[in-house]
Amino acid sequence: MADSLDALRARVNAFVTERDWAQFHSPKNLAMAMIVEAGEVVEHFQWMTEDESRNLNAETKEQVGQELSDTLVYLLRIAEVCGVDLIEAANKKIDLNAQKYPVEKCKGSNAKYSAYE
After folding, report:
1. Does the pTM exceed 0.85?
2. Which of 3, 56, 71, 77 could form a disulfide with 61 if both were Cys (CB 3.0 to 4.6 A apart)?
3. Burial of 45 (0-12, 13-18, 19+ CB in 10 A)
4. pLDDT number for residue 113
5. Are 77 and 86 in contact (CB under 8 A)?
6. How far apart are CA 104 and CA 6, in angstroms?
C-alpha cells in the first residue's frame, strides 16, 4: 500500500498502465472527471448544517473519503500527464498566498484578498 505521495502516484500510474487507460487520460478528460468527483463530495454536504458537516457519522465519513480519494487520483493523473510536480507547485502557491494574505492584515478574517491591498 502506498504511504507517500510519490508511492501513491506510482501505484496509480501502474494501475492505469495495466489497464491501458492512459490513452483516455487527456488533461481535459481528467479535469472533467475530477470535477465530477469533487461534485460528489459536495453532494454529501449539500443539505447539512455547519455543525453536521463537522461531525460526520462513520458511514458518511467513509463515503466522503471514497469521493475525496477519487478526486485525489484524478488530480495525481492530471499532474502526471501535464508534468506538474504537485509538491513544488503547492509550495510556490503557499508562498504566493503568504504574500497576498499577510498574517498581520488578515488573521481571523475571511475577506477577499483585495481588501488587504
Report:
1. yes
2. 56
3. middle
4. 64
5. no
6. 35
Q: What residues contact 68, with CB distance under 8 A and at least 6 apart?
A: 41
What dihedral angle (degrees, nearest 10) is formed by the CA atoms of 9, 15, 20, 24? -50
Query: Mapped to the 3 state alphabet, what secondary structure does the chain carry?
Result: CCCCHHHHHHHHHHHHHHCCCHHHCCHHHHHHHHHHHHHHHHHHHCCCCHHHHHCCCHHHHHHHHHHHHHHHHHHHHHHHHHCCCHHHHHHHHHHHHHHHCCHHHHCCCCCCHHHHC
For 112: left if phi > 0, alpha if psi spans -120 to 50, otherwise beta; the answer is beta
Q: Compute the residue count for the chain.
A: 117
What is the per-residue pLDDT across 25-39, written as a single tens digit (0 to 9) for each? 999 999 999 999 999
